[in-house]
Amino acid sequence: MGKDELKSPKVIQLNLQSTGRSHSSCCVCKKRDVKFITLTACARHNAFIDSEVLLLAGARCCSHHVNNDGNLCLDALQKLKDMNTGTETMFNKTGIASLIKEIRSIAKVNEKCRLDFDSSEGLSSSDYEILLGIGKEDFNDLVSHVKGIRDTKNRSVRTCIAILLVKLRTGMSNRLLSTIFNMEKTSIRRAIKAAREEMEVNFIPHYLGFQHISREKIIEEHTRPLAQELFGSTLYKPVILVIDGTYIYIQKSNNFQFQRKSYSMHKNRPLVKPMIIVSTSGYIVSVLGPYHANQKNNDANILIHNILTNMEDIKHWIKEDDVLIVDRGFRDAVDFLEDMGVKTEMPAFLKKGQKQHTVEEANSSRLVTKIRWVVESVNGRLKLWKYLQNVVPNTQIPYIGCYVRLVAALCNKYKVPISVGEHQDDQSLAAKMKFLATQRNNLQERVIREEGLHRNVKAWKKMDASKECVPNFPKLCEEELRNITVGVYQLKLAKSYTVEHLNDDGDYMITINDDISDILRVRIQSRHMTSKTYMLWIEYNHICIKSWYCQCKAGARVVGACAHISSVLWYLCFARHNSETVNGVQDWSQYLEDASQLPQLVDESDSDEMSPAEE
């Protein structure tokens, strides 16, 4: 193209509206004396496609008219559409050729694009939530943290970050991602690497790790009042953390030494173990590891290793009299923590030969599980990113820790707390639980003392589990049942127990004794073992439930009730009066074959019919 052609005069007039000639006013709202930004060529051409108004080179606008992706926002585009400049635009040959070339380039890119994360209108916020795990505005904020990635001819910065998040959220392979994003597999691999390294430097450290947040902020903003009331001090508020390991499954390895170290005898498969440390609201303080999975890397040894190696300066962050809530897998670390001055709260153990927890053990364990459940819920939230739930290829083992930390940081930044409670309500609940924890189970003592309650089978008459059985049993609402169970988990299991025991194969045996009018005895099937059933007793009157006792491990507690008792209460007090509530638990067995169901064989030798005689 010659020099004269480049400087050819603008003599071609087209019936196109244009704006942006002035550099002292906004091309959208015409305001003056404000801070402007100069629109890029890509933004100007996208605006022309959307509004049919041509923005001239050098056009400037107010900063609030521009999205995070550099294009004009919807309101600005609408103002351009409503604009009537009343002028036609002059071009030279070069300008027309350049405009056609740019529009063609945009058309080619849009033709190739199958998932468009660059356009503000391409995907809805719900689409972002499904594909990435975070909404559109949250993704815009995430991209604003990016400093070290640049646009390339194959993908933009936004697409680069989106590729990584789509992989984590859906668990798709790189081959499938290359099809979805219409890119070469090598380009997908490079984009994931760039996004991972960027997130590890400029995003994760701001929202995860002991050094990203102070003790005071954890205490004031991320500790549920119920936890402080149950395990805190009357003199000051300690940090209360809940700790547990999670599992990321990996492939078998041809390296036998590594295979032995990564094989979990507990799960009977190879895996690695990140250690999750959360506050009582579900805020993830840190993710340490991952670790091997053999016996030397049990939860207790991992926690001791965290502290002795001072990972993330944990020894200076955790102070004396802080409280760590753990499960029974940390039992070998309790003495180590107590030597540091750190208090531990852990569910009680059954001693050798002991079949059931004492009332005191069961009650204290319920106080612990009332707070500890949050870490299980956090682990479940992390596994919503399917990459962490699937079997991870061994080639990706070096990056598992980064991926878990990235998902944890995303949850901290963009997800709501898992466990919250109003201060006054939590105070009342804690006072109730602490009082109940000091009480004895009078019904248990009565069952043990009075032989007729436990052993005299003939005195107990079986009743049909229908609306008419036990007519004087109190009728309660779900809120009243939650006050008895001190939680919702047991009531969630109640429907499944009830459906099983009301079907033809179920064994929901409710019995009463004419000589003992205020006690109900029920035999209920264990949900874990077919051969195991439990006997339970409920003391009641026509107004309320007075006491309960079950033979299961936790059945003696009075701080709430076990799932077996809860299911009977839920059915007799509530569900049988609302028949539609029992429905909804699907039995998928009808779609499968059962090898235990065999046709009855007939012994033909006992048949009266004689075989025809041979002539």
From TrEMBL:
Cofactor(s) listed: a divalent metal cation
Residue ranges occupied by any DDE Tnp4 domain in the UniProt entry: 243-412
Gene Ontology molecular functions: metal ion binding
One Pfam match: DDE_Tnp_4
Keywords: Metal-binding
Highest taxon, organism lineage: Eukaryota
Tagged with keyword Metal-binding: yes
Name by which UniProt lists this protein: DDE Tnp4 domain-containing protein
